[in-house]
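quick one: adenosine-5'-diphosphate bound model?
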Amino acid sequence: MNQKNKSGEVWEHLSIIKLGGSVITDKSVPFRARKGDIDRLAREIAGILPEIDYRLIIVHGGGSYGHPVAAKYKIKEGVCEGDFSTLLRQRLGFTQTKKAMIELNSIIVDSFLRANVPVVPIPPSAISITKNERISSFDTAALYRALKGGFIPLLHGDPVFDEEKGFTILSGDQIVSYLARIMGVERVLIGTDVDGLYTEDPKINPDAKPVDILKYSHDYEAVLAKLTRDKERVKVEKIFIDVTDQMIGKISEIIDIWKRGIEIIIFNARKPNYLTRIFRNEKVPCTRLID
Ligand code: ADP
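yep, here:
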């Protein structure tokens, strides 16, 4: 599929890989990166890059780096009320969250360097602004230049400035969805720590059934019906796919790009060679959301 991006350029076969926080970190232990998995994924990506002509953007989550710090200082909720010292404490919390993401990003960059992958970290906090937690501006100029120059842009969930709330957290999932829309991306691979979408959270119910394929024309209304927006929160009814808090944001972001005909694959990036096999169109247990 050829798609014209916002700047009028045509990019063929551009893909985005999302490396979920659950893949690159152990979410149960603050500041624990899964260095073995990151190294392996860097090597897998190095292997497929020549096959996809270096047309790739990578976005990673915050996992046990960004999340606990952001939660401690309530960064997602925006600027709190209080006296100067309260406000200063929260601002320092914003900086701490930023630093945690820089640390995780730096570990990832090291792995990619060892695998000879020319990633270029592009921090969303410096190029984007949100309004009530949704992206209102995002400067993609450096991304296009990087891609043209044969680099792999590497972005991540980040604390960002927000027009209404002062600041907030911009999730990796929202970045993926936004870039997929505006950059004419052909395929989005969402790597997490389970084999795709299940009828229920497979970690809570081991009998949950995997969902292999969701066809837009056939399943869109059904999936959409499970997601009802109530102001900023998304509620999911227990009918077809039961999704807990963790998956809710992901699914609502995905819905937005699925309806535009972009192929989305949710897969287990903790399993060796799944990423490689997906790129080579080999059969892997995963969920495909197709046109
Ligand atoms: P990541 O950090 O990889 O971006 P999250 O941890 O936010 O991903 O979400 C993935 C988790 O969502 C899985 O580990 C799984 O336990 C949970 N989950 C909840 N509901 C579902 C579902 N219906 N299908 C698959 N996973 C689900």
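The chain has a mean pLDDT of 89.
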